[in-house]
Design brief:
430 residues; alpha+beta; Cytochrome Bc1 Complex, Chain A, domain 1; 2 domains; five-stranded mixed beta sheet
Length: 430
């Protein structure tokens, strides 16, 4: 096993790529009583179009999320029941670019690890099971469509990336899910659920040599799929000039969302992570509760505790979403646009605020280091080199205000802006 040492934190990461292509990351945590494992697949909602062995494939929107659901439903048992019998907590989720399966347990680690690897790597698909799953996911989609926050978020992204796979909800919609066939599911699985397209991260109470032996024994029992030629096809047409999308829903107060689509080139690996952290610090300096701008908006009763922002830096795209409930939607949008326009000229004068924000973020990271769930949630094995929470802290420590200034200019100078407003029909727009 390769050893990556983090002497500043007295932590070690053990790494090994098995003969079948699966890469395993093990991080023992002294004094921890639980173990958390995450089996990640480098496959998400944007991967519905690809070239397989030279042939173009287009699959229905929502198939990655559909496949995640299907993995738990076996011939004569439910996977959640197996985890429950061992006392483990299990879950799974699909994002734009990844699908993760995980468990956390205080006992029976080997048994739970076998359950995790086996249910993901030994599929059971039938026509009847596929049809049954459609009804279950339709209910989930209906729930999402009746959620104003969910609608505001995904309508914003659809405005930023029109006529693309990103314009679809991660779960798809009822029409696209209805188009999914058994053949679609089997093809998606064969294409993406391959050992070389997966990573396994385990942290907490563990012996690296022992756990690696368990994993190798498990993988030896399975055949390695034949090689394929895969090319992902992510086409993102330019967004139209700024538009305002008004949507009517039953909400107590208007909801506004401002989206910013990045058009600059983001580096890969840890340099890309540095960019991501720099942009996050930028938004913190102007939109967090510690900022002057936030305080003014709050004092003027334009925002409240629903106000938030997030920045997504994914494989092939990056964007920011700012949102909140407000009684003054137009004023909030105009004020936010002015704040964003002022960032490049103001940010260079915030050295004191920058240092305070770094200190606060550093404290948050130190707190997360005491949670194996947080440690596993921060891990990324799909950006060309493994990135841990300790790498993030070291990047944060070395980050300068000049770094943030440069990232802010790179992102904001070329960003496309779109806005979404959700309100009742009888609510004023001002």
């Amino acid at each position: 096993m390769e050893l990556i040492d983090y002497p500043n934190y007295n932590e070690k990461l053990f790494v090994q790529t098995l003969s079948n292509g699966l890469t395993v990351y093990l991080q023992p945590k002294a004094g921890f009583n639980k173990t958390t494992a995450v089996l990640g697949v480098n496959y998400g909602s944007v991967d519905s179009q690809f070239m397989l062995n030279g042939e173009k494939v287009v699959q229905p929107a929502g198939i990655a999320h559909f496949l995640e659901h299907k993995m738990f439903d076996k011939k004569d048992y439910d996977v959640f029941e197996l985890f429950n019998k061992t006392g483990a907590r299990s879950n799974a989720f699909t994002s734009f670019t990844k699908t993760n399966y995980l468990f956390s347990t205080a006992e029976s680690v080997k048994e739970n690890l076998d359950i995790l690897l086996d249910f993901v790597q030994i599929p059971y698909f039938t026509q009847a099971k596929v049809q049954r799953e459609k009804g279950i996911i339709d209910q989930e989609i209906n729930m999402y469509q009746n959620d104003p926050d969910n609608q505001a978020y995904f309508k914003t992204i659809a405005s930023l990336y029109p006529n693309s796979v990103l314009a679809n909800d991660i779960a798809g919609d009822i029409q696209t899910v209805d188009k999914i066939t058994l053949e679609d599911v089997e093809l998606a699985y064969r294409t993406f659920y391959r050992p070389e397209n997966m990573s396994l991260f385990i942290t907490g109470k563990l012996d690296p040599s022992e756990v690696m032996n368990w994993i190798e024994d498990n993988q030896r029992r399975k055949s390695t799929p034949a090689p394929i030629s895969l090319q992902r096809r992510l086409t993102l047409p330019e967004a139209s000039k700024e538009t305002v999308l008004h949507t009517k829903m039953d909400v107590s107060r208007p909801k506004i969302t401002l989206g910013l689509r990045g058009s600059d080139q983001v580096p890969t690996g840890r340099d890309g992570l540095k960019y991501e952290i720099a942009i996050s610090v930028m938004f913190d300096l102007f939109l967090s509760e510690n900022s002057v701008e936030y305080d003014k908006l709050y004092h003027d009763e334009i925002i409240d505790d629903t106000f938030s922002w997030e920045f997504e830096n994914e494989r092939g795209f990056h964007f920011a979403v700012i949102n909140g409930d407000t009684d003054k939607p137009l004023e909030l949008i105009n004020r936010l646009k002015q704040i964003i326009a002022d960032i490049p000229t103001k940010i260079g004068h915030l050295q004191t605020e920058f240092q305070l924000q770094k200190n606060e973020l550093f404290g948050n990271y130190i707190e997360m280091m005491d949670s194996e769930e947080a440690i596993s949630g921060q891990f990324d094995g799909f950006i060309g080199e493994p990135v841990t929470i300790y790498d993030e802290v070291e990047i944060l420590k070395s980050l300068t205000l000049e770094d943030v200034f440069e990232a802010a200019h790179s992102f904001l100078d070329q960003a496309t802006v779109q806005e979404v407003m959700i309100q009742n029909s009888d609510q004023p727009k001002g």
